[in-house]
Structures are given as C-alpha cells and as structure tokens.
Amino acid sequence: MDLYVQSSSVVSKHASVCSDQPAATQIGIDILKRGGNAADAAVATMAAVSVIQPMACGIGGDCHCTFYRKKDKKVMTVNGRY
C-alpha cells in the first residue's frame, strides 16, 4: 500500500482554519473574512468536508474545540462526544 503524507506549517496572528481538504479550509477562511466567528467557520468547514469527503465526517465523531471569547477574555475548551 502506498501512503502519501502532505504536511505544511502555517503561522497567523489573527485566525486559522484547518482541515484535510484545502477547498473546505478555504471556505472556513472566507467565512472569517466576511465577519463570521470561529464557530461559523468551523461549521462551514465541516459542512464542506462532509460533501467533499463524506467518510471523514459523521454523527459518531468527537468534538474538541478550544476558543477565546474576546468580550470577557476567557479561553474555553469544549470536549463533546455523540
């Protein structure tokens, strides 16, 4: 079996979006550029992943999110599982 691994590094001062599908990642970035927040970008990115690569996304997965809420300067983590 051939295995191809692609890796890249990204540095940002303001925001980042990642997925294993470049087109889905770009959708998340576009949401942020249009004024959306991290949750908006995450939902949009995963919606795109579910179309592009449906076997990688489903109701049986985990949800691990860490985010910063600017208004009260808090970092929060959500660990959810269906």
UniProtKB/TrEMBL annotation:
<dbReference type="Pfam" id="PF01019">
    <property type="entry name" value="G_glu_transpept"/>
</dbReference>
<dbReference type="InterPro" id="IPR029055">
    <property type="entry name" value="Ntn_hydrolases_N"/>
</dbReference>
<dbReference type="InterPro" id="IPR052896">
    <property type="entry name" value="GGT-like_enzyme"/>
</dbReference>
<protein>
    <recommendedName>
        <fullName>Gamma-glutamyltranspeptidase 1</fullName>
    </recommendedName>
</protein>
